[in-house]
Automatic annotation (TrEMBL):
This is Cupin domain-containing protein. Residues 48-103 form the Cupin type-2 domain. Signal peptide: none annotated.
Amino acid sequence: MQAGNMFSQIPSQLPEEIFEDLLTTDNLRIERILSDGHFTPEGDWYDQEQSEWVMVMQGQGIIEYHDGAMLTLNVGDYVNIPAHIKHRVKSTSADAVTIWLAIFYG
């Protein structure tokens, strides 16, 4: 049995985003992402093989879709992004660590 806490072991400084797998099976991956003002570089897009359900647990993130649509996620907000929908993280909170919970499936 594995136990943990989403709000523990957060470094005081995050020069780079941290992607941490919490659980991985053949059909599912659960990941904690820690962002501190990080964003996807301009012109780079995620185009993932799996669908992604993602929630902001702390902080804020703005997701930009390839068609120009933007979605602001605050604490407790979530979105399901189907496989191969191109998207990027436009911005995350600069004054607090953003904690994402991402579930990849399908």
